[in-house]
Design goal:
It is built from 9 helices and 2 strands. By secondary structure, the chain is mainly α.
């Protein structure tokens, strides 16, 4: 009697292998994902510095700082600061909501769509700088930063590309502890450390450009960086379609 493999079990095994392979591919170090996440973190630091220096010391990506500021303003009874900062926090949440919806509804090209939407919000902010000259430009930028955080990437087991600086620093310590015990590769904490350093560099560049040029020029530079990332993410996503891992 000739035994033939059960087609259903074979198919199931192949499907499982493919899924596992795809998961491993996402977790392994990838230069394209590292470059994208670094660019996103650089922009987040850049915009945070601009918001802090030029828009009433309000953070546009670092919501932990804004939450502390909310508490202090509430204690002091400074309801003007409380209202402005509260709206920024709320709009950041709205941005995260929109970015997550785009990711869920358009998985294949969600990175490109989110960057395109971000760029439109930056154009709105720049237009307001020209014609309105008010701190209301905080609001579209807060939405944009919330959306941007949904574009985080997995690189060497590290979740990077977000503006969560406290989480990144905690992750570095945690990853080092795991590496010492042989439970994680050293590349994990190294990637997280690179992400933190990149954020700091972005903040320094934002402060430099804002003080030496203007808010308008600073936003133009940030918009240019976002626009340049659009074809790059389009290429990344097409590559994943051709070779999903």
């Amino acid at each position: 009697m000739t035994l033939t493999p059960d087609s259903d079990s074979t198919s199931s095994h192949q499907g499982t292998t493919k899924r596992i392979g795809h998961t491993v591919e996402r977790l392994e170090p990838g230069l394209s994902r590292l470059l994208l996440s670094s660019a996103l973190v650089l922009i987040a630091g850049f915009i945070d510095a601009i918001g802090y220096l030029g828009l009433g010391k309000v953070y546009l990506s670092f919501m932990s700082g804004n939450s502390t500021k909310l508490g202090i303003a509430l204690f002091k009874g400074d309801y003007s600061v409380w209202a402005t900062t509260g709206v920024v926090v709320l709009l950041f949440i709205v941005g995260a909501f929109i970015g997550t919806l785009i990711t869920e509804l358009s998985r294949q090209y969600h990175l490109t769509l989110i960057l395109s939407a971000e760029s439109i919000l930056f154009v709105i902010a720049i237009t307001w700088v020209i014609f309105l000259h008010t701190d209301s430009i905080l609001f579209p930028l807060a939405v944009a930063m919330g959306m941007q955080n949904t574009m985080h990437q997995m690189v060497a087991h590290a979740d990077v590309g977000k503006g969560f600086v406290s989480g990144t620093l905690f992750g570095i310590g945690q990853a080092i502890a795991k590496a010492v015990r042989g439970k994680a590769p050293a590349s994990e904490w190294a990637v997280l450390a690179l992400s933190w350093i990149t954020f700091v560099i972005g903040a320094a560049l934002g402060a430099l450009l804002f003080t030496q040029a203007s808010l308008f020029i600073s936003l133009i530079v940030a918009l240019s960086a976002l626009v340049l990332l659009i074809p790059y993410t389009l290429y990344m996503q097409r590559q994943r379609t051709v070779d999903p891992g």
